[in-house]
Amino acid sequence: MAAAWCAWQIGGGHTRIDADFISLIGQENPGDTDEFNDINAVRHILAQDSRRAIFMVSAPNRDRATNAAADLAGRLSWINGTEKVTTPDDRAGRLPELMAFLQPYAPVLLSPQDRKTLMAGNGEQIYQRTVQNLYSPASTVNARSLQQDPFSLLPQYLGALAGYMGEGGGVVSQNGRYYVPVVTSLDPRLAGSDRDAQWVSDANEVVATLNRNTDINVTRTGQVFFAAAEASHAKADVQRIALLATTGIVFMVGLVFFSWGPLLAALITLASGILAGITAITIIFGTVHAIAMVFGSSLIGIAVDYALHYVSIDPARGSAQQRLRLILPGLTLGLLTSVVGFAALSISPTILLTQIAIYSVAGLIGAYLTVIFLLPFLPVQPVRNYLPIRRSVAILQYAQYRITPPTWGRLSLVVVILAGFGASTFFIKGDDNIRNLGRGNTALIAQTNTIRQILGMGASPMFLRIDGPTAEDRLQTEEALRKRLTPLLANGALDGMVTLADIIPSQKRQTENIDLVKTGLYAPYGQKLAALVPINVTPPSPATTPLLLPDDASLHVLPELANLQSGKSDLVRLRGVQDVAALKTALNGMDNTQLIDPASAISHLFGQYRQWAYLALGVAMFAALLLAIFRYGLRDGICVFGAPAGAVLCALVGSFALGVPHNFFTTMALFLVFAIGADYVLFLAESRHSSHDQDTSLAVLLSLISSVLAFGLLATSSVPLVSEIGIVIAIGLIAAWVLAPVMAGRRSANPVGMENSLPQSTKQSPHTANSAPISKDGENNGQI
């Protein structure tokens, strides 16, 4: 039923799998409204930028460059997922539409230079320009423009507007070559799907085709290219690691059991857990993030431990149900500990952690029920006593027996572990910088820098958020902001900026512009101009002249305005921030203006995720302590708790010593370490002094090998994020395997058991096997 449900939901498209990293940002309800607005603005900026890919075509002469750009634009437009392709010629083709829309607002729209000229009382310069334009062969003056804009102010405004909206995206001549930008807008549905990789592949083929020409060079940049490159590296590494891990586990199980039954049991248990997890989150959520699926699948990898624990019990111990009863207490305690730990994740306000929690809890329960109700029907095969792994387990048991301290020694070790956690809070700090998570693509970075240097295109990662109760307040703030930042633009501390007020001035400024035009142009030069043209030059009136507003009509004609608005805030796009300190100094006193670095904002958000994960891990460890005390008594319970806690500490300290930054993702890896470490010690604690003690030790060793193969090989990945997770897990699992038998307490007095066949004691009844003997320390070990 679960398989049918998952196929219907996932395969039928009823539940969407979201692979878009941007969709993770801001999916919570933090108490700090400002931070929420920051993240919303970052989401908006990244969503806009992720839909744009920039290409730069260069050639030794202008015609060759523009023709190659037109060829590239045509090829890109045919790629599935391309929404629109824009070249400088296409932008020029928008001029009639813009002229027709903005003509009624001509008296209130002044270019920065015209406004400066009129404020200085130099209106004659504009008058002389108008007269020259009237008699120019290339004049665009017509009867309508003369009637509504006799001094031709609108063309000057549109010239400044083109610079703002296009970020200087015209043909550039430099070092004997001509450079032409080609901007591609992508289908919004492309992001978060596997189609973006196909689009990148098709675009790269087009670029490679044009680059075969010796005089043509095409470079590219855009989030979609970086995302595809990172995904390609990660996918290749994961496929390689999955193949190695799967092959290793199959060989391990085959060489140990010489039977297909145990392998089938492990695969069925894991598959059942995955199906249960997917079923749970698809019932609750309409959209599931891919990261939740990946982490959930890896976390319920501990379900394999359940299957190995069952199949490692020798068939001579009794019937399937009798063997199941031998391991049931350990399985149940391991399940409870893991469920409590993962359920603690759901208390966070983050949808991602909630999805991981639900996936993991449901998956573990599904795996547990599979072991109880399905595995007893599968054939089992005993592990031959002559095999090296069986003798290795016996030797390891003897060594562990020799080094296991008495209860007071184990309690002392727990104190050291707890002190280690206290010390780690001072010496180990989180590093949530998302810039360190990816591998990075040197070639793409170099091309991005080239495009930015030559064309001035490609948004700066930093921007400003402007708050205000009304659009008018925000526009006036932006006008004051440009005045403040003008010195930075002049001295090179800032390469460029664009605000909504640059395109649509505030109503206050538009009213001021009317007064400037009336007093600076129409009053002194209106009659002179009227003598040259066949119309009446009538001064504009504030009562009859409409004001341009940032409304839906403007957005329809100027879709670029969407890049400058986010909810009830306006955004100021910055280009080439060279001096952040000078920028912050210039912003002092502007309370409604916030400087935002998307990378820093996202890093801060994932820092919050990490704090929630730490809190959930602490809750899980405390719950595990209570369960252990309830099961084994105060002293033995504390000792048992020390094994997974010590494994987490070793993973934390060991990875820190190796230079692994601790972030949200490595913290999630600590969850896996804790859950598997708890299973190890609980299995051993339940079996000590029992007939199946050596079988349990074998199961724990096999679990370690399978887990290291499945997760430890991640450390070999070329992607830093994947590699760091693998290092943390590998260190933690090895530490858990070493600590588990030590903290579980001493085994029997004669642990070696290197006999060629099972001793008579193993033929005892299940009731005898589950008796509660007195430990060598003179304490009841809590067996039931």
UniProtKB/TrEMBL annotation:
Domain of life assignment:
Bacteria
Q: Where is the composition biased (Polar residues)?
A: 757-773
Provide the residue span(s) of the region labelled Disordered: 753-784
Output the InterPro entries linked to this UniProt entry.
Answer: Mycobact_MmpL (IPR050545)
Q: Name one GO cellular component term.
A: plasma membrane
Sorted keywords for this record are: Membrane, Transmembrane, Transmembrane helix
Q: Does the keyword Transmembrane helix apply?
A: yes
- Which residues span the membrane? 241-258, 263-285, 291-312, 324-344, 356-380, 408-428, 612-630, 637-658, 664-685, 697-719, 725-744
Designated name of the protein: Membrane transport protein MMPL domain-containing protein
Q: Which species expresses this protein natively?
A: Thalassospira mesophila
